[in-house]
Write a structure and sequence with these properties.
The chain is mostly beta strands. It has strands spanning about 5-10, 20-25, 30-40, 45-50, 55-60, 65-75, 80-90, 95-100, 100-105, 110-120, 125-130, 145-150, 160, 165-175, 175-185, 190-195, 205-210, 215-220, 225-235, 245-250, 255-260, 265-270, 280-285, 290-295, 305-310, 315-320, 325-335, 340-345. The protein has a single domain, classed as Methylamine Dehydrogenase, Chain H, CATH 2.130.10.
Length: about 350
């Protein structure tokens, strides 16, 4: 594994998938290799790696129970050793994020945000749970559908995207409890899905699933509030078939934003204006498969790995760091029902 980058893939386990897979990216050969099952678990659709690379947290499902699982990462091999889990009755979350010893999850089916504590690096403890309520004008907005829960760059707030209510909500954490702080309502029927922040901590990019747009927001770290300044389409204007926008990521230099399109089966590239942080569309790149649920920049940011759920494959792209543009490499590997991809930091 020397000089290779180690990655993990979360999946659905509805058909042939076994759980969490690990793989290697060989940057010299420009190949994805060594794909194997890292942990057998029910539908670990989203995974996150701790900043020190010692732990991996995943969504987990066991029959009618859903929740979060914690694993130790064996440093020599990347093997996952299960430490603990917190599963409760009902559907599992769809997203999780970690900071320090805190894990926050968003549950699409329950419309719920949950804060966990990872105590003494060995026990997951449910600290706080918040139920969202409301609806929207789209047929998929019959109730709250929390799709993202993460931490703001200053770590002062938890930010939540609610696809069902068209809301962007910030929470404070007080005495290990989530306390609702601010709510920003965006365009009705747009369906907020995921959000990323510019490295400067002053701008955020909100991807809407139902309208396939990126809403550019000013972020005030002092007040934990957002204000809109631009909206750009993330799919082709003439694409009339179903398209659900999926993931959004930003390069560490803050120059390029990428978004995924399920339906159009592409990654959209946007250039970030150095003065205003607003976006200019550059191009679409086909993802080499069907229904790209996610993608990830490798640690060197010279590559992007796309995860196509319906075709069950990971596809490698070289990334030009000056232009942001992607070039498909001759490297595609099978990972059944793949959803989420993450590298060690």
């Amino acid at each position: 594994m020397k000089n290779n980058f180690l990655g993990y893939a979360g999946t659905y386990t509805r058909n042939t998938s076994k759980g969490i897979y690990r793989f290697e990216l060989d940057p010299k050969a420009k190949k994805i290799t060594a794909v194997e099952v890292a942990a057998e678990v029910g539908s670990p659709t989203y995974v996150a790696v701790s900043e020190d690379n010692r732990y991996l947290f995943s969504i987990g499902q066991d029959g009618d129970l859903g929740g979060v699982q914690a694993y130790q990462i064996k440093q020599e091999t990347g093997e996952l050793i299960k430490i603990d889990e917190q599963l409760t009755e009902g559907k599992s979350p769809c997203h999780l994020s970690i900071y320090d010893n805190q894990i926050v999850t968003g549950n699409y089916h329950r419309g719920e945000v949950v804060l966990y504590a990872f105590e003494d690096n060995k026990a997951l403890v449910t600290a706080s749970a918040i139920q969202h309520n409301g609806d929207g004008p789209h047929e998929r907005q019959e109730k709250s559908h929390v799709h993202f829960a993460g931490f703001t760059p200053d770590h002062n707030y938890v930010v939540v995207c609610d696809l069902g209510t068209d809301e962007l909500v910030t929470y404070r954490i007080e005495d290990n409890k989530l306390v609702r702080h601010q709510t920003r309502t965006v365009k009705p029927g747009s369906g907020p899905r995921h959000i990323v922040f510019h490295p400067n901590g002053k701008t955020a990019y909100l991807l809407t699933e139902l309208s396939s747009e990126v809403i550019v927001l000013d972020y005030d770290a002092q007040t934990g509030t957002f204000s809109e300044k631009q909206t750009v389409l993330a799919k082709p204007a003439d694409f009339t078939e179903t398209n659900d926008a999926s993931a959004i990521h930003i390069s560490s230099d803050g120059k390029f934003v990428y978004t995924g399109n399920r339906g159009h089966n592409s990654i959209a590239l946007f250039e970030v204006d150095a003065e205003t942080d607003e976006l200019t569309f550059i191009e679409f790149t086909a993802t080499g498969g069907e229904w790209p649920r996610d993608f990830v920049l490798d640690p060197s940011e010279s590559f992007i790995v796309a995860s196509n759920q319906h075709s069950g494959n990971l596809v490698l792209f070289a990334r030009d760091q000056k232009t942001g543009k992607l070039t498909p490499m001759d490297s595609t590997v099978e990972v059944p029902e793949v959803v989420c991809v993450k590298f060690l930091n």
